[in-house]
């Protein structure tokens, strides 16, 4: 089976190398600072583990959503709209707002990316819910992704999903996954003050169990002040669930190969 390499950049951003292709999740490369979102402000506390200039060529961007700066900041927006990447997969609303190379990938539909070895990488759009049930009108449209193909590990990229019911739906439809990139951090903002907008640490561990994931790389759990649970919380939750050996918590700029 082909190797998957995950290089963690920071926040929700990682570079995946799979089947000879390089994929980038939710590009965020700005330095620390404040980002207004309507009447609210999100504050970034650290820059990327690697600057955008050192990332190198990218074959496709997997963009969970475009309307929150902790998932697509100014530098990331310039990347996906500036023509440097030919394929950007996201929600229908993101495609409408951003145009250009951004393509809608509806839930349970897929697109195929040609691999240098003559094979293909299948990218399937999967549901995500960025908060509690019924919050969609407030939080907007979000998506996740499943990557698969002949001789490749199956990889789940959750996006900003807070619903274990959706994780169960993904597991039911695609079966066990080899690697799960879970957006965690238990994000909270005044928009929905009484519920997390992403997985809590305990939910991330439960999601790993539901998916049968052999390896888990957490994303979206640090570098912004609205994350309420950090990497230490994730490690404790996975240990408590008996899944500590599956968790691969990376330092910014660090990588792991599976």
Automatic annotation (TrEMBL):
Keyword Hydrolase: yes
A Pfam family annotated for this UniProt entry: Lactamase_B_2
Signal peptide stretch: none
Record keyword Hydrolase present: yes
Keywords: Hydrolase
Domain Metallo-beta-lactamase stretches: 22-221
InterPro entries: Metallo-B-lactamas, RibonucZ/Hydroxyglut_hydro, UPF0173_UPF0282_UlaG_hydrolase
Official protein name in the record: MBL fold metallo-hydrolase
């Amino acid at each position: 089976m082909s190797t998957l390499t995950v290089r963690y950049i920071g926040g929700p951003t990682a570079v995946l190398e799979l089947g000879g292709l390089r994929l980038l999740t939710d590009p965020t490369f700005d330095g620390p600072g404040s980002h207004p979102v309507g009447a609210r402000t999100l504050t970034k506390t650290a820059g990327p583990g690697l600057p955008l200039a050192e990332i190198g060529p990218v074959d496709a961007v997997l963009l969970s959503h475009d309307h929150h700066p902790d998932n697509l900041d100014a530098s990331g927006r310039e990347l996906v709209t500036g023509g440097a990447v030919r394929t950007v997969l996201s929600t229908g609303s993101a495609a409408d707002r951003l145009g250009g190379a951004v393509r809608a990938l509806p839930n349970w539909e897929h697109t195929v990316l040609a691999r240098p070895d003559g094979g293909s990488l299948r990218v399937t759009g999967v549901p995500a819910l960025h908060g509690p049930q019924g919050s969609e009108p407030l939080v907007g449209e979000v998506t996740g992704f499943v990557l698969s193909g002949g001789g490749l590990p199956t990889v789940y990229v959750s996006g900003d999903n807070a619903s274990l019911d959706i994780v169960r739906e993904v597991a039911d439809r695609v079966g066990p996954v080899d690697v799960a990139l879970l957006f965690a951090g238990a994000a909270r903002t005044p928009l929905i003050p009484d519920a997390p907008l992403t997985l809590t640490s305990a939910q991330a561990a439960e999601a790993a169990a539901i998916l049968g994931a052999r390896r888990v790389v957490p994303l979206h759990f640090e570098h912004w002040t609205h994350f309420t649970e950090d990497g230490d919380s994730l490690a404790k939750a996975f240990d408590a669930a008996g899944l500590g050996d599956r968790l691969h918590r990376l330092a910014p700029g660090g990588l792991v190969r599976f």
